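Run log, item B.
One chain of 562 residues. Sequence copied directly from the ordering sheet:
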Amino acid sequence: MPLHGVNGHHPIGHAAGGMTEPTRLLCAVAHLRPDRAEEFAKKFREWRRRMTKHLGDKLTSKKVRERRLEQATKRALADEQNNLRKLLDDEEEPTAPKQPRVLVGHEYARWVRRRIAAGGRPVPSQGFDLEAVLNACAQAQRLLWLRRGLTALASAAGGLWVLTPLAYLAPLVTLLGLWAAFYTDRALAQRRLRAVIGADVGATWGADVPRRFRRAVEGIRDASYGEVVPYRNQVRASGAKYHFVGAGKVWFETQIGIDVTRAKSNDEDDSQRSEDAKGPSRALPSVEELLAGARPGDGVVRFTPDDLHAHVARELQRPIDPLPDFHPESVQEVFGVAAIAADRWDALTPEGWEGLVTLAREGVMAADAQRAPKVARRFLCARMTSWDGELVASIFVGFAYENHYLRVVVRPHVVNPVHPVVREAEKEAAGAGWSWRRRTAYLAAVDTIWLVARLFKRATSDERQPAQDAGQGPVSLREVYSTRYMDDMLQYDDARRYIEMMQGRVLAAVEGFLVDHNVDTGEYRERITVVLNNGVINTGEMSNVQNQPGAVGSHQKAGGAA
């Protein structure tokens, strides 16, 4: 099945008519500059506190130190008991969730080049244009080379100044040159930032593809981009969750399995009810009766998982009349994908890639399709994109039919809102005037001190990559730069509505397919009833929004069918 969107919408990963909001903000992050003044002040306060304690311990006696330690232990124990009492009484005030640490500026551009574009096959982008982000990172790296050139000139000027009679001023000349380099970098980055926030596409999208991002851009422009997705297993305290990388947070998984048997006629149903009313005629059933559920019967029309896949895809794409005029502007896409383990992503060969694309489009029985079941499986992806690309709700549906046993698995994913640091780009772009210049001059001075400190202490791995990047395997830019929780009530309501709508239509389409193929749907209806009665969503990731199934402190039960 070819990759496309319904109703003439643009293909996935690209926005028709310009930048989406996540695209614009993720481009702007490359032109943000870190506020190291606050970080520097925090580290200075910690250093001053340690030195004060160290000097105080030297000036006080041993008995005084022991008495202070005992008092501190008592206070800590009392605080722990009070917190436990509040938690048991459900009186604890809600606190804002701590967001994961992310990178901005040149560190962000380097991370994107190293982790997103290095392999040449970025994971499919959701609701934003990755090509525009790569171009913005390339522009940011040009500013980095300019800053490095100015830094080298400042160091050279300081070295030459040593040869003059005022050699003692050489360190000052070097520091002034470094300050000028950082100030110039921040001033030019501010101009780029204002152009991106103002949606000046010409200032962000260059005509030439950057050399370092050429392979990644070619992969994004490939017609098959998005049809092969990596997945990984996220082991948590609540259990394992299978996560399609790039699709967002994992919501409640629905699993339905039934024995495929032929539908009974009305006469057979009446006779069966009569026998049930009389009671069992013998103590133990025969072997023939035990094995009856493992055979589909002569009346079942033969079908394959690809047949079921195609039927459900057609039903999801079928327009529903009448279309209301007040319906929000959202994009629905239905297409096949080939899922492969994240550990195999980097080792994919061009031949293997083509086989996976054929599997996603045409199914396992197609010629040249990747048929090894331990390598890849075919899924049906239905996706709703709304909120100008910020809200992306997807479901990945897998069909398995073997030994007359049908299993349907629905795995919903939702992309959370963009990170608060990304949102800061709009406020930072509004900076102008003398107040902004004074602040920039001060931050450039702090950057100079930070550079000198870096000569004696190298950056750790945590400072070179975001908190949500494990450092290995494929990673999604959109997921790393998202909030830990969906904290917007309206967006949460829309996401839940999309997931319920798509999952409900999938389950209804499967039932219609079984009826058309003369399959007994009694067991299937029972499983669907359990799912609908207990709820289709167990988010767990959004416990701070509403009292929802699976939330911390929730009294609702999280349901599902095995």
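Observations after the first pass:
- The two ends are 29 Å apart (CA to CA).
- Residues 250-273+290-418+488-534 form one domain.
Flagged for discussion on Thursday.
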